[in-house]
Amino acid sequence: MILDILKKNKLSVTDGRRKILELFLSSDGALEHADIEKYTGEIFDRVTVYRTLQTFVEKGIIHHIPTTDNSILYALCKDNCEEGHHHDNHVHFICDECNKTICLDDVTIPQVKLPKGFTPKHAEMVVSGVCDDCK
Amino acid sequence: MILDILKKNKLSVTDGRRKILELFLSSDGALEHADIEKYTGEIFDRVTVYRTLQTFVEKGIIHHIPTTDNSILYALCKDNCEEGHHHDNHVHFICDECNKTICLDDVTIPQVKLPKGFTPKHAEMVVSGVCDDCK
DNA sequence: GTATATTTGCAATATCGTTGCAAGTATTAA
DNA sequence: TTAATACTTGCAACGATATTGCAAATATAC
Known about the structure:
2 copies of one chain form a homodimer. By secondary structure, chain A is of the alpha+beta class. Helix content of chain A is 30%, strand content 27%.
């Protein structure tokens, strides 16, 4: 699985990439850089984590999630994201209790009617509240 | 107008707060810290700008806007935002051409049906594309 | 105008993310 | 399997961004 993803994207298979990808696959929510660094611990250099995430974003393996504060969250791209083409039209949910960010893959972002003159290309939607685990 | 807002929130009237609030009122879009620093120029210390923005956010005069990258955007709260209670349910638009962020005050964020167990409290929506000026 | 409370500026510090380069590792082909 | 090549990693340095303590300056209340 992990190897498949890396190979499909023509990336060399290295320990760092394997570990980080593994973390994403085993996590149901989104991760920020700090989470990843905590998990990979002392194994890899900060810089390696940055560069790995950057590479994954470029290849369309993971994507950014918008937040209201200034943290950068990453989540796995489901389905058929390709290099430069994200099909990431699902809603993200941030739990106020446990602070986890969850991809609601089945909830698509609704269309909105924009004022005259505006042309939409992409939409992001983040809902916050209490998640299933914390209710 | 500017004095009203400050007084309503029980804030001392200082040059810094006046200037920054003035900038928000005269701007139709959202601003990031760098914009504000550019405008206030050499007049105020960076730290003052940070603290002023922080105070304004706490008082509910301005609010954060989520973005996909890691920039922090601020925009005026319209209507009746009070301390700790934002009624900020309009869509934000980011123009890919001019890079401005615009509050679409008339476009309200639609409700979405969440999976079982999830309780929504707040929603943010950001649409990107081409704005009226750049079309 | 004076006393009190708040705000500001400066300096120091912390955090975050990036870049160049040499050493290390993975991939390819023989 | 080994050697050549291409890519990735770690280190160190750097730059940008944001925060904190404290003394001086300013605003508010009396």
